[in-house]
Amino acid sequence: MNYLELPCYTKTQLKIIDTAEHLFACHGIHSTTLRMITSAAKVNLAAVNYHFGNKEKLIQAVLLRNLIPLNNERQQQLDRVLHEAEIKCQPANTKQILHSFIMPTILFARRNVACKDFMTIVATLMINPNNEFRQLFNSLMTPLLNQLVQALSATLPNISPSTLNLRLQFTIGAMIFSMREIDIPLTDQHLDTDINLLITEITSFASTGMEQP
Amino acid sequence: MNYLELPCYTKTQLKIIDTAEHLFACHGIHSTTLRMITSAAKVNLAAVNYHFGNKEKLIQAVLLRNLIPLNNERQQQLDRVLHEAEIKCQPANTKQILHSFIMPTILFARRNVACKDFMTIVATLMINPNNEFRQLFNSLMTPLLNQLVQALSATLPNISPSTLNLRLQFTIGAMIFSMREIDIPLTDQHLDTDINLLITEITSFASTGMEQP
DNA sequence: GTCTATAGATTGATAGAC
DNA sequence: GTCTATCAATCTATAGAC
Fold first, then answer.
1. pLDDT tens-digit profile of B159-210?
2. Does domain B66-210 have CATH number 3.20.20.10?
3. Residue A204: its chain B contacts at CB < 8 A?
4. Is the CB of B40 under 7 A from strand D?
5. B27-62: buried (b, 16+ CB within 10 Å) or exposed (e) per residue?
């Protein structure tokens, strides 16, 4: 349910999207000018306006291009976990539910530079309460997050949905801050943490916190 | 140790700093122009350059004005916890150590609108790996964070410092995402969560995660 | 210290030739 | 579709009157 499809882009459009994504992550969306994008992508200055209409629609294209496949993968994992639990006639456990969200996210963030860049953009969007693209982002995230709270609520009926809601926020915050682009000023040792170990660490960290009385 | 002092500002300078802080949080640092700041602060357009030199130094002033007292408070709490443990001749427990960092932060974030705004700015800085003010921010945070890892390491000798480091990142991420300005698109119920309950929730969530084998 | 005026650079967007 | 040229708006910063 809720699987969305991607628009189809030409080669030039993809070159612009790729370049914009990288520059948005490095310098922030608003500090990145159309001239920076078009010169780095080696296309004409007028190309962005010709292919996307304006700068805002280019930003939307960057969001959709990454978030639609990522959320489809998250949804697929959650569906699988819930389906397997249904077969066994018992609720999925906390770790499985959180893993269905954390695992695809970390795998995505570690896939390549472009994906890392996108996660930086997403994190920035989540932090800023007044961001102009927040509404689009929310509309893409809400269905999945609501399903997660609902699934957790079935597994942990003694914990109120609002508390689960709060702890899911903690979980997402922990996950976002675990990513390479976001390092607090400690040693950078962990940056090369084995990806499977990282997924296990976050999932365990969040699960024990989630199940607290 | 490591207590820093604040510079002394005139009324006009404070008016500019207050206004800038709010606009930085609402629209981002780079999207906020000197005209937006000076017109909202009801001072002349030239006032920022006269009082602070340039835009960058104004941003630094906003950072220092908030981060110095906040970190002094965090340091004081950590010193107290470590001192009490020393008297009892046993290491401080995980919850106390994390509480010394989380409690002053959440109290600060809930103090007033200006403080909430500042936390949004800090979160944005932490997210962006290439931010030009990241170095200043890191230099202010590193001493305290190193002490936290050291204290946790004494309490949890079976867990490697790099793992504690990683879990401290999870903790900070969870804390940042718990704040009012940063809401994932779920119900907004939690936004008015009782402040003491919130501090307890985050501290417990992080402590159980931190102590995992 | 405050203000106006303006310099000098950069921005997003578009018109029109090819 | 691509390109050059350019517009109108906006930006930071400063000079100089008061």
1. 999 999 999 999 999 999 998 544 455 555 545 678 999 999 999 999 999 9
2. no
3. 209, 212
4. no
5. bbbbebebeebbebbebeeebbeebbeebeebbebb
Task: Please report, for residues A16, A102, B67, B124, B139, the alpha-carbon distance to residue B17 in angstroms, rounded to integers and kept in the order given.
Answer: 38, 39, 14, 18, 21
Instruction: Write the CB contacts of A59 (distance below 8 Å, at least 6 apart in sequence).
Output: A20, A24, A29, A133
pLDDT over 70 at A152, yes or no: yes
Q: State residue B73's pLDDT score.
A: 98
Task: State pTM to two decimals.
Answer: 0.94
Residue with tokens 């030409």: A10
Sign of torsion, CA B9 B12 B18 B19?
Answer: negative
All residues of chain A having their beta carbon less than 8 Å from the beta carbon of residue B167 are: 201, 205
Which 183-202 residues of chain B touch chain A by CB within 8 A? 183-187, 189-190, 193, 198, 201-202
To the nearest whole number, what is the mean pLDDT of chain A?
93
Q: How large a percentage of chain A has pLDDT more than 90?
A: 85
A71-87 confidence digits (pLDDT tens): 999 999 999 999 999 99
State how far the Cα of B45 lies from the Cα of B31, in Å rounded to an integer. Answer: 17
Chain A: give the shortest CA distance to residue B62, in Å: 18
Q: Is the CB of B34 under 7 A from strand D?
A: yes
Q: Percent helix, strand and coil across chain A, each rounded to 5?
A: 70, 0, 30
Among A98, A166, A172, A196, the strongest candidate for a mutation testing the B interface, having the largest count of B CBs within 10 A, is A166
Q: Which 159-188 residues of chain B touch chain A by CB within 8 A? A: 162-163, 165-178, 181-187
B12-35 mean pLDDT: 97
